[in-house]
Amino acid sequence: MEIITNERFKATIKIMRALVIIGLLCTALATIGILGVLSYAKTQGAPPLAVPLSTLLYADDGTLIGEERHQGETRYWVSLEEMSQPVIDATLSIEDRSFFTHHGFDYKRIAGAIIADIKAMAKVQGASTITQQYARNLFLEHEKTWDRKLTEAFYTIRLELNYSKNEILEGYLNTIYYGHGVYGIEAAANYYFGKSASELSLAEASMLAGIPKGPSRYSPFVNEEKAKQRQKIVLASMVQNGLLSDKTAKTALEEELVYTTKENIERVEVAPYFQDVVKNELYTKLKLDKHTIETGGLRVYTTLDPELQKVAEEKVQSYIHKDSEIQLGFVAMEPKNGEVKALIGGRDYTESPFNRATQAERQPGSTFKPFLYYAALEKGYTPSTQIRSEVTTFSYDDDRSTYTPHNYNNYYANDTISLAQAIALSDNVYAVKTHLFLGEDTLIKTAKKLGITSKLEKVPSLALGTSGVKLLEMVNAYSTIGNGGNLRKPVFITKVENYKGEVIYENDQKPKQVLDPDTAFVTTHLMTGMFDSKLNDYTAVTGTTISKKLTRFYAGKSGSTRTDSWMIGFSPQLVAGIWTGYDQNKTLDLVAEKQYAKNIWASFMEEAHKDKTPLPFTPPEGVVGVYVDPASGLLATKDCPVSRLTFYKKGTEPTEACTKHAEAGDQKEKKHKKEDKEEKGFFKRIFDWF
User: Fold this and answer.
1) Residue among 260, 255, 232, 247 at smallest CA distance from 90
2) Element (H, E) at 518
3) What is the pLDDT of residues 185-210, one digit of tens each?
4) 179 phi/psi in degrees, rounded to 5
5) Whole-angstrom Cα distance, residue 296 to residue 289?
6) Could you tell me the residue range of the domain that residue 455 belongs to?
């Protein structure tokens, strides 16, 4: 009996020794396995935190004007510093109160969840930490398989090993789903309350913190009663964690929340044609791929002035009848920096996204003439240069082709007129004579110098704007003239940041001096003539119909063809241009249609300048101003009925005084003396008769 007992004892010792050895081996293997997993996770490095984020477009005043969404999802990214503290406290309390003390897994919660599930014989309690949820949001599908669970655990380890707790928390709050296609706390704050995450109150933050557990159940837009119950649980957890007092939690729960309305959520898109240009520049100018633009969470800061855009749209609506099929393009920009402040590409973006301001090439008519007259001034013309205005047929090319330009309504001076009158009256004969005298290449080269990239035909009629060009090109060219000959390409984007707030692009465009500043100023002053009745001659200046509406100093030029109506002009502070016409080249037959461009331009410019200090066009040192008789172009005298201050490059101003009116006055005085003499003789004869 004693021998049997001894044998059993020895056998038990062997078993225990074996178990200890196996245990030690298992522990060693487990330790090696854990160390192996940790080492492998470390060697894999930091997992990328890129998630699809909405690209946001901002106006020049910082207001949000649009966004590029990925598959209809709204995702923004903000730093922890840009979130209100109640957001962080509420989320940690309800989702993972031990977040800052565990290493990715909360084993106590896991054990508690297992026990709760066993008792309920169902899945009733979750144990996922914030890090685990973030790993799932970043890298995984949400299917419930062991493979997914293991992968999630591995990504959780990688996150904890390579990122700080604040970085993980920030990422989680920016990627968690809040329902209705909204991801991240910033998007949720905007969607539910129309504000930024930094502005959320305790009541609002506790409401939002409760949604991620079941967005389809706890969204206040789905079931406000359940959402309120969930908010109560969130606030209770904050009290339990010592973050709130019972009184503060009760006050927050009783606070009446003001949600955004459906109208607020469905934001009216601002300047959609402008936004299209911005997105195109992200592709073409910044060389960003489509995926980055749609999912990169970029913050694009644009040049758009929302107030000027609104003014432009209102003026279009007030002048063009809503039932009219006429179309338009409109651009306004600052001459000094080239920043585009307003842009309209058509009457209705939803009906036609074709951008008539940047894509359509239309005949600019007489708005092309300032380029010609700048070239003429460079070649020796002055504002006083005289050319005869009468019906003229020109021969050109080797085959002796002929061309006969006509003035509007076939009005001609049948006499000489000055360059200052020619541009103000928009005399076509003067323009074609000048064009052919300079050589047809000269105008093309000048236009290209001013940034015109559209193809220009080498023909006599080019002086009258018969080659199609883009409105944006024309407005930018006028901006260059008004800016003293400094060319700047149109600017739509000032800065682009990635989702981390790092600047990846900043506009640093330097101006290019393409025109002589003195000649550019003389051209500018010539362009003020369309509004000055002192230059009236055989017809009125072309700005007569709108000049009385204008209260500022403007330079500009109108232009028209059978199918196109243009008006482009500028002040020292702003340049704007508009084209109106029909997409299918239908002729402009109604008087009102022909006046849309001028009236919209004048009304816009006056409204746009109402809060700006009136500024004159300041001549550079190389320019001198003298008073001349508009008709003769010579120095005005006291006998001239009209005199106008006109600017010239120093050394080209007239030195001869106008004698035309003095001679006319002498002849008139002689006539009066003769009549007086004859009258006296008549009375004398009567006296003698008596």
Assistant:
1) 232
2) helix 517-527
3) 998 999 999 999 999 999 999 999 99
4) 90, 160
5) 10
6) 340-608
